[in-house]
Amino acid sequence: MKRIKCVGILTSGGDSPGMNAAIRAVTRTAIYNGLRVKGIMRGYKGLIDDEIVDFKTGNVSNIVKQGGTILKTARSREFETKEGRRKAWDNMQKHKIDALVVIGGDGSLTGARIFAAEYDIPVVGLPGTIDNDLYGTDTTIGYDSALNTIVWAVDRLRDTASSHERLFFVEVMGRNAGFLALNGAIATGAEAAIIPEIATEVDQLTELIENGFRKDKNSSIVLVAESETTGGAMGMAERVKKEYPQFDSRVTILGHIQRGGSPTASDRILASRMGQQAVEALLDGQRNIMIGVDDDQLVHVPFSQAIRDDKPIDRGLLQTVKILSI
């Protein structure tokens, strides 16, 4: 096995709070262990376009508190082609990069898995996504920060919802995963969470209204996961207008505000631990794995498992929302 002397770091896909803490941890752990570090700008696109710079300990000073990613991020269609990955490999050779740490979500780790298999490169992934949808880890870098942003926003929305006696649909991110909507509903005291995981099993809007969710309340807030399956908050509001015109509904789409801002302490600590573990795993000969957390212990999850398997929601939390909203 070839000895690792230089590690490259990149962030890919959607940014998430805590990515900078992870970059800092990878950089400094590598330097601590006598390795050289290369920062790859703009994800796989930068690897293809040769946007690769030397990283020293000073490059990552005072970034633990910053949101976003100092390495920038971009989606790369070219990396999905063999020709694009060949260019990426040639640039790794040019800069004498022996191993990669990839910070991103399922799409980023899918690309890492393919690249590692084609060129026999040691790659370790860190789960950087606010969606919390990667299998094999209790939580992902950025999820806690996004959840806290949702709580901050909905708490303020509750004030105006109470003043106007309206039904508010609040759309949160999560794509095909309802973790933000479900836990956000519990944390904000929302009346319901509409999530994609059960959208094909039950008409969540009909169930919500027919259960008499308003009763004597002067406001109702429902968190909706953005998803074609749920129809999103706009889809819910359109249905209310047609099917339940007696209700005055409004829509708030939180959008990319959920990705911004300084990471919480939990995300800073998680990202720092995972970043250190990524380098130590590479030095230990590990490859094609994602660093996850299970019961507060760091674990190694094969890429194939992290990407292939759907992460299940805790269905008991649905009952929690229902009980606490009476």
What report would you give on this structure?
The protein is of the alpha/beta class and about 325 residues long. The protein folds into two domains: about 180 residues, Rossmann fold (3-Layer(aba) Sandwich); about 120 residues, 3-Layer(aba) Sandwich (Rossmann fold). The chain has eleven helices and eleven strands. The strands form two sheets. A seven-stranded mixed sheet has the order 3-2-1-4-5-10-11, sandwiched between helices. Strand 1, helix 1 and strand 2 form a beta-alpha-beta unit. The longest helix has 22 residues. The chain is elongated. The termini are far apart. The model has no long low-confidence stretch (mean pLDDT about 90).
Task: Record the SSE blueprint.
Blueprint (H helix, E strand, L loop, with lengths): L5 E6 L7 H14 L3 E5 L2 H7 L2 E4 L26 H13 L4 E6 L1 H14 L3 E5 L15 H22 L2 E6 L6 H10 L3 E3 L9 H7 L9 E6 L6 H12 L5 E5 L11 H19 L5 E6 L2 E6 H6 L7 H9 L2
Parallel strand pairs: 1-2, 1-4, 4-5, 5-10, 6-8, 6-9, 7-8
Antiparallel strand pairs: 2-3, 10-11
Helix pairs in contact: 1-9, 2-3, 5-6, 6-11
